[in-house]
């Protein structure tokens, strides 16, 4: 059965972030994920994970000034030094938190930057990060995101992600497949997952429209999740959705998986 990880950035937001670990565990989750750990003491987060017997499935490399609308800096040619420093910081946190996967957000391409320049910058940054993460025992992932939620995001499709992975040429670069984003951008979910399963160590889910829990929108999760299971997928699936009402009220769909 799919292993579900609660996304603590979006779920259980009725309680303060440090308390969401216990709430997720009480709901039956064995794993969690979140956008960024960097605003918190890594040892406090480690304690929260250990107290609640939780695995940290994934977090992101530093993503720039999130509060001001930045969504990653991987493709920003004028931020390379910041990106490289962020790699070191991410490895430090992930090592303490025993997190074996880090996601690199490509970011919104600056309008003044040529798309090819953005591509080359992203490739070089990934070539910098991939071997360093590998040495630390951590997988590096990239994620395609829809341009309705984040207009101008650089990485937007499976084909583009695969092209970037090929160009980087590392055996430590993978594709984080976000079902919600890819339904919006390209559809064809089941065959795409099946075709690229070897490159997908982590998935995320939400329904569309609304980005709420499965069963609230158009994606047939009653088919898709068993299909993913039949394929032999062994990674985590992060529940990166905004509860339609409260998190607890929308957890009915998880009963057969938790």
Question: How would you describe what is shown here?
Answer:
This protein is an alpha/beta fold. It has one domain (3-254): Alpha-Beta Barrel (TIM Barrel), CATH 3.20.20. 35% of the residues lie in helices and 14% in strands. It contains eight helices and eight strands, in the order E-H-E-H-E-H-E-H-E-H-E-H-H-E-H-E. It has an eight-stranded parallel barrel, surrounded by five helices. Strand 2 (31-33), helix 2 (42-51) and strand 3 (55-60) form a beta-alpha-beta unit. Helix 3 runs parallel beside helix 4 and helix 4 (115-135) crosses helix 5 (158-168). It is globular, with a radius of gyration of 17 Å. The chain starts with a strand and ends in a 19-residue tail after the last strand.
The gist of it:
This protein has 258 residues and is α/β, with parallel strands linked by helices. Helices cover 35% and strands 14% of the residues.
Write out key terms for the chains shown.
single chain; 258 residues; alpha/beta; TIM Barrel; eight-stranded parallel barrel; 8 helices
């Amino acid at each position: 059965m799919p292993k579900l990880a609660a996304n603590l950035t979006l779920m259980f937001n009725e309680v303060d972030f440090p308390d969401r670990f216990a709430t997720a565990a009480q709901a039956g989750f064995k794993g969690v994920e979140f956008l960024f750990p960097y605003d918190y003491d890594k040892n406090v987060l480690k304690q929260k994970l250990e107290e609640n017997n939780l695995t940290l499935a994934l977090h992101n490399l530093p993503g720039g000034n999130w509060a001001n609308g930045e969504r990653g800096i991987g493709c920003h040619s004028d931020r390379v030094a910041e990106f490289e420093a962020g790699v070191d910081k991410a490895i430090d946190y992930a090592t303490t938190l025993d997190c074996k996967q880090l996601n690199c957000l490509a970011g919104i391409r600056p309008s003044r930057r040529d798309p090819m320049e953005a591509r080359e910058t992203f490739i070089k940054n990934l070539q910098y990060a991939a071997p360093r993460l590998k040495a630390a025992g951590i997988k590096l992932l990239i994620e395609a995101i829809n341009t309705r939620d984040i207009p101008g995001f650089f990485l937007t499709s499976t084909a583009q992600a695969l092209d970037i992975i090929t160009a980087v040429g590392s055996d430590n670069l993978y594709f984080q497949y976000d079902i919600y984003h890819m339904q919006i951008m390209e559809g064809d979910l089941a065959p795409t997952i099946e075709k690229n399963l070897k490159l997908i160590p982590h998935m995320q889910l939400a329904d569309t429209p609304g980005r709420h829990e499965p069963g609230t929108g158009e994606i047939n999760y009653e088919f898709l999740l068993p299909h993913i299971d039949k394929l032999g997928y062994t990674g985590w699936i992060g529940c990166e959705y905004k509860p339609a009402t409260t998190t607890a009220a929308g957890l009915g769909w998880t009963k057969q998986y938790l």
